[in-house]
Amino acid sequence: MTQTQPVETIPQPRHAPVAVPTAGQPYEYRRSPLVEPDWTRFPGWRHVTREQWENAQWQRVNCVKNIKQLRTVLGDLVDESFYADLEADQKALATMSMLVPPQMINTMVPFAPMTTEAFLADPIRRYMIPVASDRRTDWPSHPYASRDSLHEHDMWVAEGLTHRYPTKVLAELLSTCPQYCGHCTRMDLVGNSTPAVDKLKLTLKPVDRYDAHIAYLKAHPGVRDVVVSGGDVANVPWKNLESYLMRLLELETVRDIRLATKALMGLPQHWLQPDVVEGLERVARTASRRGVNLAIHTHVNHAQSITPLVAKAAQTALDVGVRDVRNQGVLMRGVNATTPDLLDLCFALQGEAGILPYYFYMCDMIPNAEHWRVPVWHAQQLQHDIMGYLPGYATPRIVCDVPFVGKRWVHMLTEYDRERGISYWTKNYRTSIESADLEALNKRYAYYDPIDTLPESGQAWWHAHRND
């Protein structure tokens, strides 16, 4: 019997470890715990207490509505040139009047020295306090821009009730918000008139408007989903809002109710008031008992906006029984239209505040908004570039809200003329104004990229046809 001899191990020479270069990732995640910026860094709020800051009424009373009030807050932190720039915009270009809660101003340049340059560059400032130098002078508006770019008013079936999708309606309960965003898609109705825009007005008394909404829903059992908006529902006195929601919950055909409120971010103090929290719990409990999905949809555009107070407001809504708190942001150049900005925001929303990233809309084709808008190809690239980083359920869809069509994922176009920036889209349902249009589902509907993003040949084409 042969014995197996042990195998001799030959010593291997020792080499210094070789550093293997790594390419890294296009985006590197780093958790950023939420911090409430120090509001006392502003001269006008140097003596404001935490009790005042967290009071919703104090926030509303101290909203910045004009340049004089902004000066009081900022003091000499920014130069006179900024105020002149702002005044020029307010006098000729702004489609929304100024209304910015202290909470939102406090998220501008939150952790760096406040200077004129820093304030001008700040993403929250860029869309909440636009100045004339932000806007384009070659193409401030697209030739096909319009005040009601989505034709929501055209699709009113009762005052303030838009029926665009077969099973869903948008209920505009009022025409005011706690804050006015420069890019507001409802700039024809919401807020005070400006020198550039004489606003439409709701004419019915609220009680009559709400009655008309309920009557329409009773007569149209095919509608199962109601987005309750405005304006912003945070500006509806709570007892009136609760009454409206309870009436919706009495309709067996209504299965989804979504409350639209940017104030969850812009004025979280409102959603933390005891009477609002208790009322929301009553509505949520009733919705749960009747098998109705109750959600809050908010509107956050940048990670700077997410603070502990915002997270507390969102968690409180979830704690009292709201099924979901979701975010619908808007893509805007200079604000969030980069992959790092979007991913930073989504991680802050989902990981730190319990808010689900849901949609990012391409900025609508309203007047004086070309400096914010991005072309379809850019939105498509962003959708590609954010995939794979977030959980699938928290990966937002980037959509184009095409006039007369509605929301479409940005890759759903049927044809795209990149040179002239014209994309064509189709749809699979009729809006409330197309019930007799047999060809509505066979048409192609156009959407237009910002002209300054086109190649020179495309820009030349639009220059040649700008008066057509």
TrEMBL record:
<keyword id="KW-0004">4Fe-4S</keyword>
<protein>
    <submittedName>
        <fullName>L-lysine 2,3-aminomutase</fullName>
    </submittedName>
</protein>
<dbReference type="InterPro" id="IPR013785">
    <property type="entry name" value="Aldolase_TIM"/>
</dbReference>
<keyword id="KW-0479">Metal-binding</keyword>
<dbReference type="InterPro" id="IPR003739">
    <property type="entry name" value="Lys_aminomutase/Glu_NH3_mut"/>
</dbReference>
<dbReference type="GO" id="GO:0051539">
    <property type="term" value="F:4 iron, 4 sulfur cluster binding"/>
</dbReference>
<keyword id="KW-0408">Iron</keyword>
<dbReference type="InterPro" id="IPR058240">
    <property type="entry name" value="rSAM_sf"/>
</dbReference>
<keyword id="KW-0411">Iron-sulfur</keyword>
<feature type="region of interest" description="Disordered">
    <location>
        <begin position="1"/>
        <end position="23"/>
    </location>
</feature>
